[in-house]
Records
---
Amino acid sequence: MQNLKAGVIGCGYFAQNHLAAWQAIEDVTLAAVCDQQADRAEEAGAKFGAGKVYTDAAEMLANEPLDFVDVVTTPPSHRPLVELVAQHGRHVICQKPLAPSMEDAKAMVDACKSAGVTFMVHENFRWQGIIRHAKQIVDDGKIGEPFFAQVSFRTGYDVYPNQPYLATDERLVLYDMGVHVFDLVRFFMGEVNSLYAQTHRIHPDIRGEDAATALLRHDHGTSVANMNYVSAVEHDEFIQIPVRIEGNRGSLEIRRDYQLSVVSDKQMTHHHVPPGQYPWGSPLGGAVIESVVNVQRHWVDCLRNGTEPDTSGADNLKTLELVFGSYKSVAGDTIYHTEA
Ligand code: NAD
Ligand code: 89V
């Protein structure tokens, strides 16, 4: 395939990482950017050298011969924008959380399938370098058959100044962070059969839950997923994700400062897997930038090879079901059983 023409809709906080990564990825040209806030669109266009600048997505799609569009807006606009891009026959990426409901998410997947376009969710936590390294160790059988996983994202980092909508959304940490944590649970342990979840609202002046824990059952094991935006700890690992996987031949553990320890057949090895360094900064730290570049390179590879992205829209439905299933579990204080 020739050089790919990219369009980006949404030029806000996190889009700065997407835009910088598109600029860095070979054989991709940032043909157009769009934001309904003209100042943001103009600033992004100038900063990242976009060919054209728009404030209306429909106008951009009508005028630009794009190969794909990267939607980096917040969830309320995900469905109309993805459906619009699919109607124009363009491949499309959409940021997480995919949609405010399973009905919306399924409609988006169906729209892209009907249009014959490739559809990926920009679920990038599984693309952090240390996560890929740990997954390879598991896939190589070094710890045997995994039977237990714990994925934790507990931080006191003040997420609200950069993402003010998080303070007012009715659903917070399961919706915003659960999509990452549950995707990692599936990545390491496979599909989930049932779960039981509990939540709390610790912060007095936010609307949604800011602490959640879920116990998840797989065919061959158990996972514990926990997440919060309130932990007051000595070493805040914000955006690093402590992971522990135990198997019948050993275990691995990802700890702060990108340390990975492995026990395989009683032999201990230590690995230090820091993120690659990129010229543009982000308050989120290197692991995020690395994961954004990696997932966007994966996308380009999929378009070139005609393959389905790892976190395709269809795949992400299984992750999103765990988020909404957790809310159902909390509401009824019951076990949620996933759809077959
Ligand atoms: P933001 O509000 O800072 O930016 C969104 C931008 O989209 C705004 O500038 C807004 O004007 C624009 N927009 C909204 N609807 C539009 C439309 N119909 N047409 C054109 N422009 C439109 O939001 P953000 O914090 O950058 O978050 C964007 C998405 O990224 C969210 O879904 C969030 O969950 C996700 N996010 C992901 C990560 C990650 O992948 N690790 C990190 C942070 C945020
Ligand atoms: O990474 C994310 O999805 C953001 C967070 C608050 C965790 O940075 O929403």
---
Amino acid sequence: MIVITAPEQMHEWLHSYRGGKSIGFVPTMGALHAGHEVLLQQAQHENDITVLSIFVNPTQFNVQSDFEAYPRTTERDLRIAEHHDVDVVYMPETDRMYPEGWRIFIEPGTAADPLEGLGRPGHFRGVATIVTKLFNTVQPTRAYFGKKDYQQLAVIRQMVSELNFDISVVGVETVRHDDGLAMSSRNIRLSDVQRSTAPVIHQALVSAKNLVDAGETSPDVVINTMTSRLAAADGCRIEYIEIVRQTDLQTISTINCPSVICIAVWFDEVRLIDNIEIEPPQR
Ligand code: PAF
């Protein structure tokens, strides 16, 4: 008889007992773009089997009309999945994920509180709930998430750790268009003029990182510089620019630890987010 006293030992024992193949999992809401393709490639490269899920999750939308307007491009998505040799595409029906009478939610941890959590109440509760349901069903070895949704990645890492899921969460670098705009399913909703202005988000982030690399340690100075630049960009309305610690997304008063600059802006009805990781200046 074996006595095990820690969750990770239990996981280790189960792995060796079951043997078997590793499963790389890429959860998505469809409308696949090059950013998702990079996740699929990495999952493929690092695992025996790749599973892609496509499910537009109603519980993570604050506004019903956003849920309804979310692009659904299933046939195209399936062609992309095929192209990347995905082994299984999991596309559950909404009433199988949320059947009549269903009421259990996963309450996310502290990583859900700042930034997006302030402007989109309940969003991460919906994300944590659906990701838990998908994890329980797919039972992946590794799950892949883009760093563009930096806070989502932090919320899921915290959830996996606090709920003792036996899953490695892999954060993958943001994929960008040639002009720097982060790939996002929302970009197609930008007008031509907005699309040509939107790269200013990444430009402002890179300039801010350069400022920090050159020795600036004041978050206020960095944020003010970014604000001036973005305020001058036609049609761009800033929702927030924040500099937070990478580990727990808490606001900092001096840039003296690995941090991340997070930004959310609007172009009319289209909300875009992006971020850049920064290191404290070398002394
Ligand atoms: O990032 C997304 O596409 C979604 O939030 C996710 C993780 C698939 C949950 O619905």
---
Amino acid sequence: MDIAKMTIKAIHTGLENKDFKAEEVTRAYLARIKAFDQGIGAFLSLDEAGAIAMSRGIDEKIQGGEAPGLLTGVPLAVKDNLCTRGLKTTCASRMLEDFVPPYDATVVGRLRERGAVILGKANMDEFAMGSSNENSAFYPVKNPWDMTRVSGGSSGGPAAAVAAGFAPYALGSDTGGSIRMPASFCGLVGVKPTYGAVSRYGLIAFGSSLDQVGPFARTVEDAAIALEGIEGFDPKDATSVEGRVRGGYTASMLSGVKGIRIGVPREFFAQGVDPEVKKTVLRAVKRLEALGAEVEEFSLPITESGLSAYYMISSAEASSNLGRYDGVRFGYRTRDYDGFEEMVVKSRTEAFGQEVKRRIMLGTYVLSSGYYDAYYKKAMLFRQKVRRLFKEAFEVYDAVVSPTVPVLPFKLGEKTQDPLAMYLADLFTVNVNIAGIPAISLPAGFSEGGLPVGIQFMGDHFEETKLFRIAYALEQDLGLNLVPELKEVK
Ligand code: GLN
């Protein structure tokens, strides 16, 4: 059993055939995490006892003749902004350093019911704000493909965990690209589902109208299996969509891309895109054409204004969502203070990191009277436009393609002093959240220096099926080898 290369599917088949036990699988991952994660920083905490107990229980059931489901006995990593009952959920912030939720997020609960084994909580940018995982209050996450480079953010921990072979899949959250970007940087498949398709209950809120939970996996099939395990209506989330027939991705993705229409938006391949990224993505698009897809260039002028609108909307919502961390209701409270106001001010000053403070200030500013019309209202109008332009595109095309990130994985520290340069990395991902549509990122190839390059497919609301179909066809055609070599750190 080569644990580093295992997929959900392979583990499932092995358990079903009794080739190995769930406990052996769990122990093998825990051992690998201990050997290698010090150099990477993918996990913030492990739940060894819980994971072993869970896997033992599964083994007993399998011994007793119960047929395991697809996710039964399969370990995973969970981003540390998803509430896990009895397990610390820090959001990679000093503010929630000691927070132990009394309940599970719906997605976590659903996986537990299916017999999933949670290995631990994965690192992230503080409150999911960032594009490189350098905003974690604890430690950054290094890219398993090149440890001098970032893993991408904000779900860098879940991504690095899967890329490093610490888990076959992981859950992340995506507000403006936080699943797709680290998936792209770490050579993985990452899915941002349609807004409302997956419950947000128990996901610590950043930008509530943009946030969605989704999976990271090594293969398109695994990503489909994982999404099927977490999606669906949840009465506890008011924005959860009821009455949609979902799932069935693993069956429908096999039907190929003949006749599928793919739009190539000119603006997503323009200035600012690294030539190696552009070349690799366009080569993959050519492969799809050879497989029978109809490819056409068109104009979708939303990239730069979309970025501005995203940072205003997400910061506005964040400033409101983070109001609850006042030293009373949730989180850290300063030690010495004189009166209520000083207590609140000192608690927030001491426990929030720089980026979080920057977003709260930006959000408060764009929502303040006098500036509301000039900024927030304008951003909301632009949001309508983005939705409309995507709708129009999907009247013509089944999917729209772009690079996931305009640049290659950059060096640790390279962009930390320049927030605007960091924000630019989100250029091609944010509009998907603004419109609420689904998107998938998968590896398109490698740069000359051996760094992964991701390709993104965007689809109409609730058209995940088409995205899986295209992604699967491309993945099978490219046949990339996606396991990085790791060095043991003692
Ligand atoms: N990088 C973006 C930001 O910093 C997106 C983050 C996310 O999707 N959570 O806001």
